[in-house]
Design brief:
Blueprint: H1 2-11, H2 20-33, H3 39-59, H4 69-91, H5 94-100, H6 102-108, H7 115-139, H8 142-146, H9 152-159, H10 164-170, H11 174-193, H12 196-201, H13 203-248, H14 251-303
Helix pairs in contact: 2-3, 3-4, 3-6, 3-7, 3-11, 3-13, 4-13, 5-6, 7-11
Protein name: Glycerophosphocholine acyltransferase 1
GO molecular function, one term: acyltransferase activity
Membrane topology: Multi-pass membrane protein
Length: about 300
């Protein structure tokens, strides 16, 4: 997280650090270390972690790309709160939960929360975050945002401009686009909270959901590797084709081909002369052998 803070400030992405996912991580830290007895804080954190944070992995295409610290950090910010809460609620020893996190024991045992209560109590910290974001980022930093500093709203408006919901928002007056975006964002948050009672009271449902989210991030990472490295390899091949075509059409290569064309008959003539000379030498050797053989034969005949 500290590395993310400095790198995003350096790249001009500091307004992304005020997004809801960072606020949920802060709520989780408060719930674990400062307010472990607060049932309402615990249930609010749980709904926001399993709701907006977990589903944002699909919406923001968080990817498990091992060589990218930025992508791994983004995935960690979104997936770790629900994973930690799954361990606290379903995997931790009950005696330890009773002594260290009594709010979880009370909500699971005596004071059970229904869907409506979960949504209501999760809306309270969500509303605090949304109003603070609008006041300190959208209003007070309006000039810098207009100058090009990206925010979640500007990113979503650009990314979803061709979808039906993006077109619907962009048709509104400019002053009404941001309130419409906040309303859509809250509706999305409530929609993702609907299955939270199943995640909280049923260990198997929670495990299946987190497994699906993790597999989705792996799929995004695999797609990233195929798209990025495949595209890079394709660009290298295209560049290689251009270099080969440029080399083949270069004047020096044409001159070299012309010289080779004129030298081929000369090489052929030289080869023919060499072969003829070698043949003549062989014939001379053969004639000399015949002479010696005839001389020896004549000598033997005379002696006889």
């Amino acid at each position: 997280m500290p590395i993310r803070y400095f790198t995003y400030h350096k790249r001009g992405y500091q307004y992304f650090l005020a997004d809801l996912c960072y606020f949920v991580n802060l709520l989780l830290l408060l719930n674990i270390w400062i307010f472990p007895n607060s049932r309402r804080l615990m249930i609010s954190t749980y709904c926001l972690a399993y709701g907006n944070n977990a589903w944002a992995i699909a919406m923001w295409r968080n990817s498990l790309v091992f060589h990218s610290l930025d992508k791994v950090t983004s995935l960690f910010i979104h997936i770790m709160p629900p994973v930690v809460l799954h361990c606290l609620v379903h995997l931790l020893d009950q005696d330890l939960v009773d002594s260290r996190f009594p709010s979880i024991s009370r909500v699971k045992g005596v004071e059970k929360y229904g869907l409506i209560e979960m949504v209501i109590w999760a809306t309270v910290p969500y509303g605090i975050w949304q109003l603070s974001y609008h006041l300190f980022i959208t209003v007070r930093r309006r000039e810098k945002i207009a100058a090009g500093r990206p925010t979640s709203f500007t990113w979503l408006r650009k990314s979803y401009s061709k979808t039906w919901i993006g077109k619907l928002v962009l048709r509104l007056p400019e002053t009404a686009q941001e309130p419409a975006f906040m309303l859509i964002q809250y509706s999305y948050a409530v929609l993702t909270m609907l299955p939270c009672p199943f995640w909280f009271y049923h260990r198997s449902f929670s495990a299946l959901f987190l497994t699906a989210v993790g597999l989705w991030s792996i799929y995004n990472g695999a797609t990233y590797y195929i798209d990025v490295f495949g595209k890079r390899f394709q660009n290298e091949l295209e560049q290689l084709k251009k270099d080969v075509a440029k080399w083949q059409s270069s004047p020096r290569l044409n001159e070299s081909n012309e010289d080779t064309k004129y030298l081929e008959p000369l090489n052929l003539t030289t080869k023919t002369i060499t072969e003829t000379t070698a043949t003549d030498r062989g014939e001379k050797k053969l004639d000399g052998s015949e002479v010696r053989e005839r001389t020896i034969t004549s000598s033997v005949t005379t002696e006889t």
